Structure formats: structure tokens, C-alpha cells
């Protein structure tokens, strides 16, 4: 399987697991999201959208407000 196919498959598996509330996947995704909130280090671009979704979906108003403020201050349009 090519690297792109593997990444796409991983993305789909994570998406489904998060949609169903898989405890381990939710924990991993929210842990990565919380690490990002602490340091705003880059998240793997292939997984970034799902990690952000999980942080907002399973987080509180604090997480939503943080993402919104990051969105409004990012200067590079492709990072939005």
C-alpha cells in the first residue's frame, strides 16, 4: 500500500472511531489536541482536522475559544 493510501486509510479509521466515541481514540486525539494547546506545535497535517474536531467535540468552551482565537490570528490562509 502506498504511503498516501496508508495515510488516507488511517484518517478514515480515526474518523470512524471518533464518530462512534471509541474511548482509546478519543483519549489519544484529545491528548494530542491538549498538547497542541500547550505548545501549538504542528500536528500531522493528515490528522490535524480530526484532532481539532475531537478537541472541540469532546472539549469545553475553553477548547472552542482557543481554536477560534488561533483561527482568527493565523496569517497563513492554508493553516485555517
From TrEMBL:
This chain belongs to which protein, by name? Answer: ERAP1-like C-terminal domain-containing protein
Q: What does UniProt give as the signal peptide span?
A: 1-21
Q: Does the keyword rRNA-binding apply?
A: no
Keywords (alphabetical) are: Signal
Identify the residues that the record assigns to the ERAP1-like C-terminal domain, covering every copy: 3-73
Name the species this protein comes from.
Answer: Magallana gigas
